[in-house]
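Why does residue order matter? Because the sequence determines the fold. Keep that principle in mind as you read this record.
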Amino acid sequence: MGKRIRIINEPSDIVPLLRAFGTESHKKVFDCLQTGWKTDEEIEKEVNFKPAESLLVLKKSGFVESKWRMPQPGKTPEKEYHSSYSRVQVNFECSVEDLSDMIMVTFKSDNDLRSYLDQIEKEVKAGNQSMNGLQRVIDKSIMFIRAVSRRSSILTVKGQRIEIFGETE
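Structure:
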């Protein structure tokens, strides 16, 4: 099955990539989806655990696509998933300070970043969605804010704005 190449030009896109493949369970689910379209049940049989969290992380990082499987007459449709990419090309330049922020955000625990996540989520829900506006309030670099937002399961980065994930889908 021919796959596409994921081109990463934005430095903060490296955060969800490292998070997705920094966990063995997420990697197992991704490997399972390399062979074709599979439902939750089929994935669970292959990897021996519930794949919901892994699918969420992989979908947010852009490495998994989903569609509805046409059911047999009288049955309920099921969502099925497959891997979107088989190769990655990374092409960006950033300061060492920004790179260190992104690596730090990637590997810190959720508790260590909770206050930043809560503050960003609160601001975005209040309507402050621009990077410059968030930078003034949070007093961190734009790259740090982008990295924290890309790590979140609730937030998504859209150009120079941050939105609630799924709000515009």
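The chain has two domains: 4-90, 96-164.
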